[in-house]
Write a structure and sequence with these properties.
The protein is α/β, with parallel strands linked by helices and 282 residues long. It has twelve helices and nine strands. Bound molecules: ligand C2E and magnesium ion (3 copies). The site of one magnesium ion has 4 residues, from strand 6. It comes from Sphingomonas jejuensis.
């Protein structure tokens, strides 16, 4: 299982992918076709209840395996897709797969909740509200089974159109998470304006939890603040047992990270909760 999940995190990528702008352009022109060809797929990283250590949800993470170039880093093709008009098609593709997966997971974990990353760019139009409602309705998933994750650094707080789109999405009954919480700017402003249901503490605070007294203070006070505001807290990037134990003592609700599971293919996620994993792999 571990071997099967490795290789999905693309740790050994080609660093020249970052600089080569000709490559970026040609990659972008291939993105639509890649989605149609199935080269763009979705990995799932389980989210665990810190107290029970059971799987209660997962985060959908886009993966692109290029036929010649091999795996392309998400931060590269997501960024490129955001700068063009490709992000909508990509997001709907991920949402469709994620909702299907959620239905399958709910056969084993009835309250399973799926998180999908949403580019703030898609909040600039209200179209996304109908699109999300339509996908949920077609698959029969209640909105409470879906969380949309927003990266804090996106310039959201000042844009009233984006905020009203976000309120409309919340109005459907789904959850909203502030991703990478603690990085970027205007943290308190964000908490005040964004109709969030959950914050995800950035892994830069989580990784050194067992060594850094400062990080412990920042994380524990953040958990307390979030709970006072009625928000759930997810710790991302949990890589060590010691960090997970500290998070449990602090009352953190959920955790994700390589210690618990790497992002894995849908079949492997299912096998983690399906008592007859061979049947679903067949
Ligand atoms: P994110 O949403 O903050 O996702 C968490 C990232 O941390 C993922 O990287 C995940 O593989 C990685 N990670 C998880 N556990 C650990 C750990 O224990 N240690 C370390 N070092 N890393 C860990 P990934 O998959 O490369 O994704 C990078 C970013 O790309 C995501 O950050 C998200 O912002 C974006 N992204 C991925 N898929 C989508 C998508 O479908 N739509 C949008 N808009 N953005 C996406
Ligand atoms: Mg995320
Ligand atoms: Mg994150
Ligand atoms: Mg991130």
């Amino acid at each position: 299982e571990q071997a099967a999940s490795e290789g999905i995190d693309w740790k050994c990528h080609d660093p020249s992918q970052l600089e080569d702008s000709a490559w970026r352009l040609s990659m972008l022109s291939q993105l639509n076709a890649a989605i149609d060809a199935g080269d763009l797929w979705v990995a799932y990283q389980p989210k665990y209840d810190v107290a029970t250590r059971m799987i209660v949800g997962a985060e959908a993470l886009a993966r692109w395996t290029h036929p010649d170039k091999g795996p392309i880093r998400p931060d590269i093709f997501i960024g490129a897709a955001e700068q063009s008009n490709r992000i909508e098609k990509l997001t709907l593709h991920v949402l469709e797969d994620a909702v299907t997966t959620t239905i399958a997971m709910r056969a084993h974990v009835p309250d399973f909740v799926m998180a999908v990353n949403l580019s703030a760019k898609l909040l600039e139009s209200t179209r996304i509200v109908e699109q999300v409602r339509d996908i949920l309705a077609r698959h029969g998933l209640p909105a409470s089974g879906l969380i949309l994750e927003l990266t804090e650094t996106a310039a959201l707080g000042s844009d009233s159109q984006s905020l009203s789109t976000l309120h409309a999405l919340r109005g459907l009954g789904l959850g909203v998470a502030i991703d990478d919480y603690g990085t970027g700017m205007s943290t308190l402003d964000y908490l005040k304006r964004v109709p969030a249901t959950e914050i995800k503490i950035d892994r830069s605070f989580v990784q050194s939890l067992d060594g850094q007294e400062n990080d412990r203070l920042l994380v524990s006070s953040t958990i307390q603040l979030a709970h006072l505001l009625g928000l759930k807290v997810v710790a991302e990037g949990v890589e060590r047992r010691e960090a997970l134990d500290i998070l449990q003592r602090m009352g953190c609700d959920l955790a994700q990270g390589y210690l618990l599971s790497h992002p894995v293919a849908k079949q492997i996620l299912l096998a983690k909760v399906d008592p007859t994993p061979l049947r679903s792999a067949a």
